[in-house]
Design brief:
Layout (H helix, E strand, L loop, with lengths): L1 H20 L9 H8 L2 H4 L4 H9 L3 E3 L19 E3 L19 E3 L7 E2 L10 E3 L7 E2 L10 E3 L11 H8 L5 E2 L2 E2 L2 H8 L3 H27 L10 H6 L6 H56 L1
Parallel strand pairs: 1-2, 2-3, 3-5, 4-6, 5-7, 7-8
Antiparallel strand pairs: 8-9
Helix pairs in contact: 5-6, 5-9, 7-9
């Protein structure tokens, strides 16, 4: 019984180390290879062909590292894939990943890639390791802006002193480049917005806004009819000999003046409200414009 168990364990070990034994052999990506590298070998032997296919199509993680692979291919059907390991191969181009719309983690460390591109449709990609390659250029239009962690170290492009700045301008959510965290000062400087200038700009806008608010409050106060300075009763008391028609005319005139005063104040209030709305809109537009202009400058 013990001998049988030892034999079974030996078979499992052989399957798990088969690829390592053939470490100089070049492999091509296909379903059979993925089945061998990415699914628990203990279950493969007891699966039917349909079960194997279903298991493959539902994979969220695929391991294809250390296989001397030269070309990324035959991954079109894995639309549920989230994590892809392709490090330590001989890949020269990032390609055929367009259908992997749920990909979040991609490791291409230690390959032979010279251009960072081919990831346009991987909009959920948050982690990218492309260190230890031959990267000398980046096509930013084909690099997802949602990347949060990027490792591009040990590449020829590192000699470009502006590369980190360019990456900061393009990658809106980037939090870490080459294991170095991004702080707010570095982000502002990359965009050409310096904290002191930004603080001054915001203070001026706040002062303008407070002036508008004070004007708004003053107009609210004069909307009260009791504060309209039309002394109708005093006018009538000082002229006891006024006829009934004249008194009636005074009443009408008073009501007309009050109505006009109210209408004028309401119009002023509305005008200030509109100015406040325009101020808020202008404030947001200016901030957006500053951000967009700095990004455009970096891309040029």
């Amino acid at each position: 019984m013990q001998e049988q168990n030892d034999s079974e364990n030996e078979q499992i070990d052989i399957k798990e180390t088969e690829l390592l034994i053939n470490k100089d052999k070049e492999f091509q990506i296909d379903l059979a290879l993925i089945l061998k590298t990415s699914i628990d070998q203990n279950f493969i032997d007891i699966m039917t062909e349909d079960q194997k296919t279903n298991e493959l199509m539902s994979l969220k993680t695929i391991h294809l590292e250390f296989l001397n692979i030269r070309k990324i291919e035959n991954l079109e059907l894995f639309d549920k894939l989230q994590i892809l390991f392709l490090q330590h191969n001989k890949i020269s181009e990032i390609e055929n990943l367009d259908t992997l719309i749920n990909l979040e983690y991609l490791s291409l460390k230690n390959n032979q890639i010279s251009i960072l591109k081919g990831l346009k449709n991987s909009k959920k990609l948050a982690f990218l390791d492309i260190s230890e390659n031959q990267i000398n250029s980046i096509i930013f239009e084909q690099v997802p802006q949602m990347i949060e962690i990027l490792n591009i170290s040990n590449n020829p492009i590192e000699t470009n002193v502006d590369i980190r700045k360019s990456l900061l301008c393009h990658l809106k959510l980037i939090d870490e480049i080459d294991s170095v965290k991004i702080d707010q000062n570095e982000r502002f400087q990359a965009l050409g917005i310096f904290p002191k200038e930004l603080e001054s700009y915001q203070r001026k806008l706040t002062q303008r806004k407070m002036k508008k608010i004070m004007k708004f409050k003053k107009i609210e106060q004069v909307l009260d009819v009791d504060k309209v300075e039309i002394k109708e009763d005093e006018l009538i008391e000082e002229n006891d000999n006024l006829t009934e028609n004249t008194i009636h005319d005074i009443h009408n005139l008073t009501e007309s003046l009050i109505t006009k005063a109210q209408q004028s104040n309401i119009e002023k209030l509305y005008q200030v409200q509109q100015e406040l709305l325009e101020y808020q809109k202008l404030h947001q537009e200016i901030r957006n414009k500053i951000y967009e202009e700095q990004i455009q400058k970096q891309q040029i």
